[in-house]
């Protein structure tokens, strides 16, 4: 039964409404309305002023190829603007830059995310990462999108345990990931896949699936890497050079097709490796690039360069030699050959090892691979004949300096013009000993103590001669009569030693003056005087223990006493702290002792505490010495 509609209308001049029946088959010209059945029109209907096409009228009509049909297969190109997101089979399409949403919140089991994408084998670049949580460390949050210049990438996946099995099955781009690559993290229900290789095949998105229904995807922008379209050397060789040595610099220019922010020069050809950050642009001058060491033969070498965009993608390596071989443009000449300089021997006047006065020496030297040479004396010790002429035997003359055995005073500088390589030999010393040295004689103590009697050994002492210059040979020194026996000196350079022996108790104690001395410096100057230490003292005696007979108070020692204040005595029977004056004989004197005289041999040691000696019924020991 047809539905009856009523309309409410205002009755004229009554202020009341009345209801009228409206026919159900009316077609209204405004508003939404469902129309069914066959409708006959007396004239062609229009839509927005344009007549509609009736059935059968288009059978012989060719429509323009710009029309997009709602059914059938059709190739569509060009830019299409949609006011709303288009749908396929009722589902909205994924727009570029939009992530494929995870379904973990929609009731699907498990969870799965992509956390990182990197280039396989380090070839190409993956960059422009956008993460779910900005500022997070790579791998610690879900990845939303990235760009890539390579199709072969490595993918990291994070997944949670689902309901189907303990270790879930995971899929990437529809491909099941081998279970052996799904690794559990510690003891948690978390599973990781690290560096799983995928070929993107120019895809603009990448999806991963969990067997329990969860899935996740990222948007991928296929990035075009930058290209080097030209690179060359510019600015010319340094100075008048025609070759370059290691450490020289040369200017370099690089042109690219798009803006780049970094230029990398490889350790190849002319240059050492370097990476330079640049202001974004397509034309860059790199000044003073450092030249590499490529050996000691001439080589025409180019350079190898690549560039990087701000997002990290690199160009291919570019060789300047791909453009040609023009010197100082696409190649430069490298040669790290330096002059060779050596000094072998220095010949001094006969029997000398240094120069004095205006004496001359000959310096033997060898120099090769050079164009210019110079002989100089940095401290003006020497004058050098023909100082700009190479001679294997160069004559030098002492001009100044009193004593020099260590400061370099002979220099050879050789220059190779092609690469301005300079070699300098500055480690040569032509020795100068123009002035005489001074001599110091020393012994190990202020007094040399005697020995050899009363059970003691005869001592020996070391005598040292110290010169203010190196000596040509060992010095000689004699001792005065009665002053011991001196052996030959040995040593080197400035310090020489000999042994003074036979310092026995029979010698006369006192001060001795050294005898004749002779020392010769490297230039042959002889010194015959002692500047410091011309005398030495024989005084004192080594400790000795003698036996004091029972009830006796005197005992002899077989040496003399020189300085009584330095003499000490120790009696085994009791302590005798009181040293009385030389020659004291008065007894009894408790705790006291003395000697009979100075500088006599033998010396009588007298114990003045006779009360003690008379009570000593057995022999006792007395130990005495005269200290240094």
Give a nutshell description of this structure.
The protein is an all-beta fold and 628 residues long. The protein contains 1 helix and 49 strands. Strands 8-9-16-15-11-12 form a 6-stranded mixed β-sheet, with no helix packed on it. Strands 17, 18, 19, 21 and 22 form a 5-stranded antiparallel β-sheet that branches. Strands 33, 35, 37, 38 and 39 form a 5-stranded antiparallel β-sheet that branches.
Care to describe what's here?
The structure is a single chain. With 628 residues, this protein is mainly β. The chain folds into 5 domains: 119 residues, Immunoglobulin-like (Sandwich), CATH 2.60.40; 107 residues, Immunoglobulin-like, CATH 2.60.40; 93 residues, Immunoglobulin-like, CATH 2.60.40; 99 residues, Immunoglobulin-like (Sandwich); 87 residues. Helices cover 1% and strands 42% of the residues. It has 1 helix and 49 strands. It is elongated. The protein starts with a strand and ends with a strand.
Computed over alpha carbons, the radius of gyration is 56 Å
Strands across the major sheet, in which order?
A: 8-9-16-15-11-12
Shape: elongated
- Biggest sheet, in brief? 6 strands, mixed
Give the tally of β-strands: 49
Average of pLDDT: 89
Separation, N- and C-terminal Cα atoms: 151 Å
Helicity, as a percent range = under 10%
Quote the beta fraction.
35-45%
Low-confidence stretches: 1-24, 101-107
How many structural domains in the coordinates?
5
CATH architecture type of the largest domain: Sandwich
- Fill in the CATH topology of the largest domain: Immunoglobulin-like
CATH class of the largest domain: Mainly Beta
Number of helices: 1
Instruction: Briefly note the structural class of the backbone.
Output: mainly beta
